[in-house]
Specification:
With about 550 residues, the protein is an alpha/beta fold. It has 17 helices and 21 strands. The strands form five sheets. Strands 1, 2, 3, 4, 5, 6, 17 and 18 form an eight-stranded mixed β-sheet that branches. Strands 7-16-8-9-12 form a five-stranded parallel β-sheet. It has a three-stranded antiparallel β-sheet with strand order 13-14-15, with no helix packed on it. The longest helix is centred in the last third of the chain and has 22 residues, at about 440-465. Bound molecules: ligand NA7. Its cofactor is FAD.
Length: about 550
């Protein structure tokens, strides 16, 4: 029976499903929950809808996956009535889109904004969670879905004096809703990852001066963004079915055509011509449409890196600055590469300069600015583009599972999951879009996880089960696969935040799904065919009954 989502003054609200996070995954989960007849509420810490696309509102924050491949595909009507203006949309348009989705599917009345989950306690007997949030509300939910994202906990490096700065200070991942006025200001940008390389060219023309503090250079290639023409708009609408089919089955979740030739099929000259073509191609196709041996041939990736180095030397007028901008410590794709527009060219402007922290480390931040061995440079604004603590949001929500065990403690050495969806010991907790799930275009993977979860819950409902967690065998098998296959990933444990390497003291464990979407599909299909026997299902008490006397009856649970 459906529990009521209505809250009165004295009792906690009862819901079938409580979702955390109003980003692209959380909204989709909410839509699917309501569609299937569950009562649901969504709690969001931010003051608006959008998740990543609410918080990351710095100038030039934008998709680097094509807009129509990142967006939802579950409704042809939605696909038809939303017109993306650019192949890679900017944050304001993305935020408008997600708000449009919330309105179009009447989701907003199930969303509570400005409500950060502070604890979520599993009740052993009833098989429900009691969830408390910063707005003072308490909910009892049968299912808890943490759609809290992986790049959602901003990371500030421990630089001495950071709090002492008297000017304006912003993190790209916590950007204020009121516009920041850069005009005529002396600005520092610290960090040159995807966010740093987007904001630098965006503000370079209006600031008085811009100093970019770079710890490690990245292999940036052009995003090659452009408006979607009227013909392309018509083509997108006409091709909806094919697009959906391709994206629902593609390993990467992109529309980019994989290239059939191996690098060894071509001469050096032909390869250089092909790299030139890739340089001029959109976004991630530098990876997804590269030679067929791209992910298995480090020499090829090295050669591609040298090609990009040549481009950087050609784009940056000052040879010394160009050399500093060329990575020497890693090759292309050992870190998640940024895609940018005009980043290298920005250093040709007289008011923009680069400080390489390898040669000139930051000693401290002072009241007036940033101090290095060359003295204090004074600023009006410091922008921290210093990244995120990957997948951390899930662990800091105060989730406790069976026997009161905290997820934070259970994952002290890194996450252990089944399909990046669930973890043993935490029944009825789902975390689509969390660790071990995705490997390329995230919303496509995250949508697969939501769909699979809904299938599992429907199966359970038909059979009278309402408590579920993966079998230990299934989780061990998936976690072992993730760890074993991590060495085949191009990403480097020393350099990539996909291994947690950007956070001091964080265990070095692979946090993506290195086996890709094919493996995800495969394991899901096998589980489905075997009546979801990778899960242990049981019956809890009715959602509204939180009594300690009920006992759950375990029914199944063999790993195939
Ligand atoms: P990233 O890609 O993690 O970039 C963070 C940047 O901050 C990177 O250049 C770091 O240098 C730099 N950083 C980190 N710590 C410091 C310190 N202590 N001093 C100076 N610089 C530092 O985060 P983004 O926000 O740019 O991008 C995140 C994702 O958003 C991206 O992957 C896309 O999915 C979209 P480092 O390389 O660690 O030396």
């Amino acid at each position: 029976m459906q529990a009521s989502a209505v809250q009165n003054a004295s009792a906690p609200a009862q819901v079938d499903m409580l979702i955390v996070g109003a980003g692209i995954t959380g909204l989709y989960q909410l839509y699917r929950a309501l569609e299937s007849g569950l009562s649901a509420v969504l709690l969001e810490a931010g003051k608006g809808i959008g998740g990543t696309w609410f918080w990351n509102r710095y100038p030039e924050a934008r998709f680097d996956s094509e807009s129509y491949t990142y967006a939802y595909l579950f409704s042809k009507e939605l696909f038809d009535d939303w017109r993306w203006s650019e192949h890679f949309a900017a944050q304001p348009e993305i935020e408008r889109y997600l708000n449009h989705v919330a309105d179009r599917f009447d989701l907003r009345r199930h969303v509570r904004l400005d409500a950060r989950v502070t604890s979520a306690m599993f009740n052993e007997n009833s098989g429900t969670y009691t969830i408390e949030s910063s707005d003072g509300s308490t909910h009892i939910a049968r299912y808890l879905v943490a759609a809290t994202g992986v790049l959602s906990v901003p990371f500030y490096p421990s630089v001495a004096g950071r709090e002492d700065f008297a000017g304006e200070s912003y993190h790209t991942g916590l950007w204020p809703s009121t516009p920041v006025d850069f005009k005529g200001k002396r600005v520092a940008v610290i960090g040159t990852g995807s966010s740093g390389v987007q904001i630098v060219p965006a503000i370079a023309d209006e600031v008085a001066s811009l100093t970019v503090y770079q710890r490690s250079p990245n292999w940036c290639t052009p995003l090659n963004n452009r408006p979607i023409t009227e013909d392309e708009q018509l083509g997108l609408r006409a091709d909806y079915t094919t697009i959906k089919q391709t994206l629902d089955t593609s390993i990467s979740g992109f529309l980019h055509e994989p290239y059939k030739r191996a690098s060894t099929d071509d001469t050096l000259e032909e390869r250089q011509a092909f790299y030139e073509k890739l340089w001029n191609s959109p976004g991630f196709s530098k990876m997804t449409s590269n030679y067929s041996d791209f992910f298995t041939n480090a020499d090829l990736r090295k050669e591609f890196s040298e090609f990009i180095a040549g481009k950087i030397r050609g784009l940056v007028n000052d040879p010394a600055t160009a050399e500093l901008l060329i990575p020497k410590d890693h090759i292309y794709a050992q870190k998640r590469p940024p895609y940018a527009t005009g980043f290298y060219e920005a250093f040709n402007k007289p008011n923009v300069k680069l400080v390489s922290l390898k040669e000139t480390p930051i000693q401290k931040v002072t009241e007036k600015g940033v101090e290095t061995a060359h003295g204090v440079e004074e600023f009006d604004i410091i922008v921290w583009a210093t990244g995120f603590d990957f997948a951390r949001a899930l662990q800091r929500m105060g989730i406790r599972g069976r026997n009161g065990v905290a997820l934070e403690d259970a994952w002290r050495d890194g996450p252990s999951t089944f399909l990046g969806i669930q973890a043993t010991g935490f029944p009825n907790l789902f975390f689509p879009g969390g660790p071990h799930g995705a490997a390329a275009n995230n919303p496509r993977y995250n949508g697969d996880q939501v769909d699979f979860t809904m299938e599992l819950l429907a199966y359970m409902r038909e059979r009278g089960y309402d408590v579920v967690e993966p079998s230990q065998a299934a989780e061990d098998q998936w976690s072992n696969t993730v760890n074993a296959m991590a060495s085949y990933s191009p990403f480097s444990p020393e350099h990539s935040y996909y291994f947690g390497s950007n956070i001091p003291g964080k265990p070095r464990k692979f946090l993506l799904n290195p086996a890709g979407r094919g493996m995800l599909f495969d394991v899901m299909a096998k589980s489905r065919e075997a009546q979801f026997n990778t899960f242990v299902m049981s019956q809890g008490r009715a959602c509204i009954d939180d009594s300690e006397t009920a006992s759950a009856t375990q029914q199944t649970g063999e790993q195939s």
